[in-house]
What we know:
Layout: E1 2-9, E2 18-28, E3 31-38, E4 41-45, E5 47-51, E6 54-58, E7 64-70, E8 75-82, E9 90-97, E10 116-123, E11 131-141, E12 144-151, E13 154-155, E14 159-164, E15 167-173, E16 178-185, E17 189-196, E18 200-208, E19 232-234, E20 240-242, E21 252-258, H1 263-279, E22 284-292, H2 297-311, E23 316-322, H3 325-331, E24 343-347, E25 353-358, H4 367-384
Amino acid sequence: MGAWHMALDLDSTEGHLELPFRFDVTGGPEALNLVIHNQDEAITVDSVSFRGDSIRIRMPFFDSEFLGALKGDSAFQGVWINHYKGPDYRIPFLATAGAQPRFPGATTAPSIDLSGDWEVHFTHADDPDQDEPAIGIFTQDKGQVKGSFATPSGDLRFLEGVITGDSLFLSTFNGSMAYLFRAAIHGDSLSGDFHSGHRWAQPWYAVRNPHFTLPDDESMTKLNPDHPVAFSFPGVDGHVHSSSDEQYKGKVVVLDIMGTWCPNCLDEARMLQEFQQKYQAQGLEVVSLCFERGTDDAKALEAIRRFGERLGITYSLLYAGQATKENVAQALPFIDRLKAYPTTLIIGRDGRVGHIYTGIYGPGTGARYIRFKERMENAIVQLLNTPAERQ
């Protein structure tokens, strides 16, 4: 019981490289839970099982798990397996009992404060011309740093870390994302590397710039005028649901293109469920088209069903097939090119698309999430208040 610390061993070519996070163990022997902490996010993990000295921990939303062995009462170690990336994707871990800081921190408050917005560029060492822009959003309390990176396709969710000396360390783990950021601090600039699991590493740099902006998320995705906006896919109830169904006629429809493997889609699903409950009586219908990883349709439908149950979703979740470029292009001919999960269309009572949102500013982005949510809600309310013949 109590506080624990886990470190994933990313086995960097530079030497030992750890991705740390904190969790609490709660409950009793018959109902043991873990609560993983990332900044303001708390993830309850309720699938923990034992066989002798072996332990298995399955993540609640994403297809990954920890397999390990107990080392007395104060440690266990093993491997984290991310099934989305194949059976060979295994990262060693060590978990130890006791309240420990996420990262070893400085004993005194640092002289620099990183709070604010930063212009960020993720680069490619083998192709200097490739550049992925982002906004670094940081808040700092003494040496503790929280924040996220907003990108044109979505944010990197809840990051937590520390400044020690002239270095910044941030990490997050949610069962899908296993991210570690490191950077050297040079006054009002940062330079470092970004590790995603043990297979991906990318340089990045940043400068303090509160005026830096990303492409407009309401103009990035274009419709194909040669195809009407329509859908017809099976739901977890075993029935095919189509845009021509009576359920959607004369309604404002929020059409969410997502996947249950996508952490940003998890954030948006929670938001859309709020809208469904708040505005369904006024004529709102939310429907999600789920593009899933893997080739097993039965497993995909079970993942969608489990996703909906865990979130308490009352709107329709439909299985649109595999999340491949070819399948998405065939399933969604009305979109010129899908650029991000989630992508959200808001359709008026007359069947015309009023707004398209590419990606999401999620809760990890703080005030940007509030503004994003307000924009989408205002667009929904405007269309609900507009009769079909006037749209």
